[in-house]
Amino acid sequence: MAKQNRRDFLKQTALATSTMILAPGAVWCPSPVRAGPARPGTRTGTAGSSAVEIAIARLQEGVTTDLQAIAVKLTEAAMESLGGMGRFVSKGDVVWLKPNIGWNSRPELAANTNPDVVATLVRLCFEAGAKQVKVGDNACNTARQTYRTSGIAAAAEKVGADLVFLDERRFKDVALQGEQLTTWPLYPEILDADLLINVPVVKHHGLSRVSLGMKNYMGIIGGERSRWHQALPACLCDITAYLQPRLTVLDAVRVLTAHGPRGGNPADVQQRNVVAAGTDVVALDAFGAELLGHEPAKIATVRAGFEAGLGQLDYRSLAPVELAVS
Amino acid sequence: MNPRRRARLIIWIRRVVQIACLLSFFALLVATRDPGHGQTPTGLLQVFFAIDPLVYLTTWLAAQSAAELSLLALITVGVTFLLGRVFCGWICPFGTLHNAVASLRGKLRRVLPRTEQFSRWQRAKYYLLYALVVMALLGVHWIGVFDPLSLLYRSTTTALLPGLQWAVEDGATTVYFVDPHLGSWHLTSITEPVYQFLRVHLFGPERPIFQGSGVILLILLVALALNLYRARFWCRYVCPLGALLGLCAVRPLLRLSGTAAECNDCGLCSMRCPAAAQPETRERWLPRECFGCWNCVAACNNSGLDFRFVWPWRRTPTGQVDLRKRAALTAVVGGVGGALLMRITPPAQGRTFNPLLIRPPGARAERQFLQRCIQCGMCMKTCPTGGLQPTWDEAGLEGVWTPMLVPRIGWCEYECNLCGQVCPTGAINPLPLATKKPLKIGLAVIDTTRCLPYAYDRECIVCEEHCPIPTKAIYFVQREVTGRDGGRRLLKQPEVDPELCNGCGICENKCPFADLPAIRVTSAGEDRHSDNQPILPGPPADAQWSDYVTPSAADSAAAPTASPYGD
Description:
heterodimer, A: alpha/beta, Rossmann fold, ten-stranded mixed beta sheet, two-stranded antiparallel sheet, 10 helices, 20% strand, B: mainly alpha, Alpha-Beta Plaits, two-stranded antiparallel ribbon, 24 helices, 8% strand, elongated
């Protein structure tokens, strides 16, 4: 054994200790870090003004009762009339799919995004040439159980997606410069993706009455996010403005109509057989609010999104393509 | 084969067995977590506790229930009758760790090996065992504090594994953010896959952290460090399981004896004996102390020692550990005293209830729970939120290191019943999910002096959002509040339905107040205690008995328009 005297030992200890103390300080500097140019949504658009902005796929009555087939068909149809996944995904892209995987709850309870909608989108991304598709959410319940119970873990991995369990240490303060929030911790790995696809499920929410696309972005933020409830419309506008959404896919195959966002009572779930996809998250939220029986202008978060210039309150003004899927 | 060569072979086999047992122990510990399909491989995970006769003897005595007896533990007892304390020398993972540290002693400190003389203090472990057994007879189950398997499991779960996780994950995250690279080669191309692999397969995405783990770790480290003073100090002087097995090792089949070869009193056998079982004395060798490690036989240059087969009914001259009656009596009195000491407290007599002592779902009533819990920490290891924490003084000295839910650290996950599935002694009943979900382990109470919609006129109801009860145990009532500027608005103020709340604590965990949450769970209303019930079961049948009347439309219209406090 090599001889080690006390002085060497103390030196090494001091070095190791100072590295441990100083390194995190150097790394997690409190000053806000502006995300690099790879921010999702900042790439110049590939779509012309004539492109379809919203596509709403509904199942024709009595065609099939196979829930999986319904979800797959509706998703495919909505994406196709939007111009196909190739409109958003380029060859070699890394895509982050952000479903709602918030709750340790089974698919039929509609607290999370439909796993077949997620899996179909993963497949379409790969078909459009994506190099890697990551699926992840900052779950409210324990991540491993939530990913599994939601059915999304199995469905997404089957088609080759990488499930990512967010690590609370890896959130980084990002300058949002919003109306309410100046900085907030976001997840670098999500911001580094070439495309962020927002895949919310349509459901009830006690505070904001609906939980839709903008609300779904709460899953990529870190920190004490429960504080957002104190000014939810403004906070959702700030994050949406920062992310500049390019593609949102609204899952309304099953919707949760009460006791949201967690639900748990089968009686609160309605099978609506709708998937809507589009580039305008506010318009899609307006559509989703209508599905839940609300007048969109009376939903504070949706109205705030419109007033902040993030999208259309009157989604019909975007001439949505209505598809009857059989 | 000459005895010495045979002994060397046996020692190698022993080392393989020891390492295999140690690794299995840690592998089973790591596997004690959410299994991916809801049902843990019950029986296999707990196997080290199932073969521990001490755990089952004292649980049986304390709980006075034969159902706790395990056939596997009887096998350990049988093997010890036949072969002596081979459990200590070959199987026990804690013993193997002591072995490893003890073997470092010579290398680290470069001390000359010394002959290991039997010390009278080695009897201490027998007296400790007597005291613990007497306590168990009086219903105070304190064995988990000293049981080697409990101790090692508890230390690994609460301190070693979380410590390793912090080191690995913080290290990898530091590299991730600094991103050191040479040209196009990034260090993260090594660290990230390792980090991902360990996070998924060894640790899990949540980061457990346990209160009081420093003390638990310190005890482990002291126990291990004592090997530098005497090899296998713990096993020789302290371990009550070793003592119990020692009591069984009366006349083992294999007994040490001298061969025809001459003994030149070199003392090598004694130097190599980790048990101080005085092999050098031949006829006064101590079967109760011997671990059956075969070191002495291998150490003798003259092949002067060997284990010989002797039928159990044949007496041969051996040394005796003199367990004197007076000392034994003292130990018994000590046990009675210890039991009294722990029981003469208001909570132990059911006179007071600690509001913070929220037990896992399925935990028996406190007395019956403590009579079974061996403080092993399996429930804490498997709890997916990390909310099950070792107590320190919350359950009194008697209940030290038993599990309690600390909602600020982690809540009781609604769709989970893992703690009851893994509990090796039935202290936590295994409950089907359908039974566990509505089971009350406490009750949430809203602190309206802090709660944002009450105290600060802000929207919040994060607690309502997270409440997992399908019809929401936390609901909200829209109430009109008057702001600082005199303006009136409707705010959603949360309320708790005591009929529905199961005390899971996710509300407390998610409350924006991190220091003292504005909604807190206390043990009140826990189903396991009929004395700790503030709420009359069922909604009040006659709401009219008090002045509780539904406000009429006229009343609402006449709501005050100005602040009652003036401007």
